[in-house]
Amino acid sequence: MNFKVLCIDGGGVRGIYPAYILKRIEEVFAVRLHEIFDMVVGTSTGSIIASAIAVDYRLKDVVNIFEEKSRRIFRKTPFSFGGVIASRYDRKELEDILKLALGSRTLSETKTRLVIPATDLVSGNVHVFKSKYLDEFVRDTDVKIADAVLASCAAPTYFDPKTLGEASYMLADGGLWANNPSMVALTEAIGKLGLGKNQVKILSVGTGSKQVSYEIGGVGKKKWGALLGWEGKKLLDMILYLQSVSDTNKTKLILGENYLRLDHDSDKELPLDNVNVLTEMKNRADFTFTHNSEKVKSFLEIG
Predict the structure, then answer these.
(1) Which runs of consecutive H residues, i.e. helices, occur in the chain?
(2) What phi and psi values does residue 126 have, to the nearest 5 degrees?
(3) C-alpha radius of gyration, the chain, whole number
């Protein structure tokens, strides 16, 4: 029996793309994803979806959250000056939504293994939240799932870091190092659970890809400060894109046919906070599922 893992990328409002694909998988194949997957791993917006699956919160309701609440979540903070003076957005709206959906459940109360990457700003190290699927995992036992998600969603300049616990962790977006958490998942399966790579299957769902680049013209005259040369948000978009591509390639190399990636390429910019792309992303998700449904069914050994 294969150990099946679901990985979901970060990507802000683009999270509606994996949410809708996974909703279709549940509906068409009449399955509950927490029963199909032995582990779910999600970064940033992907952590919202992964957590919903881990507590058996309906994916149709997750899709509704993206459609109905995104404009409120990404309501600009006055005088933030595009994230220069303060974070662009107040996380209070997102926090309220997560509390409503996930309640006070902790990482000890999941129906399948849950992993959420974040970044520890105090130690300058990675921070990986894990449900208690091994006795040695004691740090996150009482951490609320909603708090872990808030930490993973705290993209620099978009949302403030999340402080947590008596140890005063100050945590930010896991996408800084694991926007595509496939290698995190593989490390857990092989390194912590002791599985062989031939025993592991990973379904990885992206949030759309747009290669980010800079024009070479006038490079000598350009001032390469954060806002002018690197163009602020564009630099973060490049970091997230490159990390996703890198881990896709590495995981595919290791797992071969045991790695299935669902994503789509875009010919236009895909910022994390552009709520105007929601309908398009949902349409693309439906197209992706329709054209890959039999492949997904076979890969997950359904039916």
Answers:
(1) 16-29, 33-36, 45-54, 59-73, 92-102, 145-152, 175-178, 182-187, 233-255, 278-299
(2) -75, 155
(3) 19
Q: Which residues of 204-235 are buried (b: 16+ CB within 10 A; e: fewer)?
A: bbbbbbbebeeeeeeeeeeeeeeeeeeebbee
Exposure string for 90-116, b = 16+ CB within 10 A, e = fewer: bbebbbebbeebbeebbbebbebbbbb
Reported as a single tens digit per residue, the pLDDT across 227-245 is 655 666 777 777 778 888 8
Q: Which of 11, 1, 46, 4 is nearest to 240 (CA)?
A: 11
Q: How far apart are CA 70 and CA 259, in angstroms?
A: 31
CA distance 48 to 68: 15
Residue 213 confidence class, pLDDT cut points 50, 70, 90 = confident
Half-sphere exposure of 253 (CA within 13 A, CB side): 7
How far is residue 6's CA from residue 162's CA, in Å, rounded to a whole number? 25
Tell me the C-alpha distance between 178 and 236, whole Å. 13
- Token pair of 37 as six digits: 């997957």
**Residue 204, H or E segment:** strand 200-205
Q: Count the residues in the chain.
A: 303
For residue range 133-142, list pLDDT tens digits in order. 999 999 999 9
* Overall average pLDDT of the 271-293 stretch: 94
Confidence (pTM)? 0.92
Q: SS3 of 129, please? A: strand
Amino acid at 172: A
Q: Which of 222, 224, 231, 208 is nearest to 157 (CA)?
A: 231
How far apart CA 133 and CA 194 sit, in angstroms, is: 13
pLDDT digits (tens, 9 = 90+) for 28-63: 999 999 999 999 999 999 999 999 999 999 999 999
